[in-house]
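Quick start: read one record
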Amino acid sequence: MQSVDWLAIAPPVVVAAMALIVLVTDLFLPDRRKPLLGALTIAGLVAALALLVPLRDGDRSTFCLDAAATGPGSAGACSYTADHFALVIQALVLGGALLTALLSLGDTRKLPAGEFWFLLLSSASGAALLPAARDLATLVVALEVASLPAFALVGIKRGDRRSSEAALKFFLSSVVATAVMLLGVSFVYAATGTLHLTEIAARLDDVPGQLDTLAKAGVALTLVGFAFKTAAAPFHFWVPDTYIGAPLPIAAYLSVVGKAVGFSGLILVTVIAFPAYADVWGPALAVLAALTMTIGNVAALRQNAGRARSAVRLLAWSSVAQAGYLLVPIAAAAYSSDEHIGSTVAYALMYAVVNLGAFAVAALVARTSPGNRLTDYRGLYATRPLAALAMAFFLLCLAGLPPGIIGLFAKVTVFSAAVDAGLGWLAVVMAVNVVIALYYYLQWTATLFRAPEEAPEETPAAAVLEETSAQDAVRAPTRHGVPASLAVAIALTAAAGVVLSGAPQAVLRFAAVSLF
């Protein structure tokens, strides 16, 4: 029997254990005490983040095979490795889940609280496990543990047809992705006889001729499965409807944590397991990157500002475009060294902070304007100046414009990765897409500071109605109040964005040491 390094696996284990505690506690709590479940969730996520600190050296592995089991000349393969890459992605995932919990504290009154917090923690535990997985079996299990609870979270609004349709579309697309991925994994296993990523890389260097086609097909199918998970075009069709139908905090969770899960898995299989077939996945990912960013930006450009939920729809298409940028350094790693992966990690950190902040402000606006149209943000500066300034900062970061220095820095590093790898055509496509994105980001930013539309001249009946509404507001002064947790989420993301903009080089340095 081999020993288990419990400290190495502590972060995902703590989150999973807290999920069970929340589920059992929910059985004994009266309705008026349900908010305690949210506090337990936040405490579990904070504890998991704290447990990353003792692992900061990034030198722990567990569930390892003996060298004799993996063949002569091998140092042994491990199924779980807490290296710097895993720790950085785990910090991103757990931090994203924590901010999602803060966004959700004031919005679970009409949702089954016990199920909501249990599902959120369950998904976060799988997401935290995945970047440390070093064999294909653990990788697929972690991916499904992260995905299956997310289906239920999307459709948790009972009686809401839009939510049910979004969950069904998300479920069907993910099932197809998993089926394709498992077929690819089975092909890779048939060609190599192992599931450990490092062993796959060694054996793919010397695949027998009769198995070469099988191995290439396995690599391609595995990449297609991850393309679904990362919302890369043309496998992105589920994103807009899913984000619109899901509760807003869950849309934020999917846009950041779901994307981090997909991209960390893609990095692991390409850079660690499949470097021998870089000539297969390199060009494929480059084309997917160009296609994804173009489709996402063009679709975001065409959004109707007066359409219901157009703000969330624009953020959804923006997340598709951002996925295209995140694919660029991974594609570049096929043509040069894997040092370009640091650009993807740095960009993911920037994107996670500012996108969660944008969704937090959207959640604030949705409290008074449930339609969440882009036109609802007109004059936000006049009513909520701090929220408007924060939203403007987030949008400028996503656009890559000052004072959002961190967004500009992230885009420059991704652009440099494409140029250094000799992918000049991809750098040109990215530059064109950045210009396209400037239009809708700046248009939304300008809307925040425009004068509010003048109300139509009131009739006596309208005046009476307004007076009645004012009286109702006096009776229920907190109906449109800002929950403290939501204010904290906006403040945390804004502060993190400002700090990162003040020292953008620290992000790349932090991401660079996260590599294998």
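The longest helix spans residues 161-192.
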